[in-house]
From TrEMBL:
The entry's keywords: Transferase
Segments forming domain N-acetyltransferase: 15-153
Originating organism: Mucilaginibacter yixingensis
CDD domains (UniProt xref): NAT_SF (cd04301)
InterPro entries hit by this protein: Acetyltransferase_Butenolide, Acyl_CoA_acyltransferase, GNAT_dom
SUPFAM superfamilies registered for this protein in UniProt: Acyl-CoA N-acyltransferases (Nat)
Entry's Gene Ontology molecular function annotations: acyltransferase activity, transferring groups other than amino-acyl groups
The protein's name in its UniProt record: N-acetylglutamate synthase-like GNAT family acetyltransferase
Pfam families named in the record: Acetyltransf_1
Length: 153
């Protein structure tokens, strides 16, 4: 099922999505990822800054204030990994996450990729609307995982 969001309807409500790095509010992004996300708690500030610097970033803004974020790690030719997707709680249940994912997968620089990938614990339904499925041939995928938090003794 292909989801079509009405950009004009969001703009009329005061929302905008932009890839303009100068609009990113690092403190909003850092606070959410470090304190509220389940996947990046404990991320060092300098590590997040490097991740943002080396990614294609999308911000959601309401009246010029950042209320959402996502980044894509990509070579813009064959592969993209969607990461750190969030909408602040006060702006949820408005379709913004769908609008954000649609904007990302339709971005001109991200067309014709062979593979998109992401990891999620709780948003399978959102991503399925845009064609994401569980990994096939999972036995071919490998990882090195180094969590940011050190185990407490």
């Amino acid at each position: 099922m292909k989801v079509i969001m009405n950009d004009a309807a969001f703009h009329k409500k005061g929302y905008q999505i932009s890839t303009d790095r100068s609009l990113l509010d690092f403190e909003v992004i850092y606070q959410y990822l470090d304190k509220e996300s389940y996947w990046a708690q404990g991320i060092p500030r300098e590590r997040l800054q490097a991740a943002i610097t080396n990614s294609m970033c999308f911000g959601i803004y309401f009246e010029q204030q950042q209320v959402g974020f996502a980044r894509v790690i990509t070579d813009k030719a064959t592969f993209a990994y969607l990461a750190d997707v969030f909408v602040l709680e006060t702006h949820r249940k408005k379709g913004l996450s769908k609008w954000l994912v649609q904007t990302i997968v339709q971005h001109p620089d991200l067309q014709g990729l062979r593979r998109w990938s992401l990891a999620t614990a709780d948003a399978h339904g959102l991503y399925a609307q845009f064609g994401f499925t569980p990994i096939t041939k999972a036995d071919r995928w490998m990882e090195i995982f180094n969590p940011y938090l050190k185990p407490q003794n």
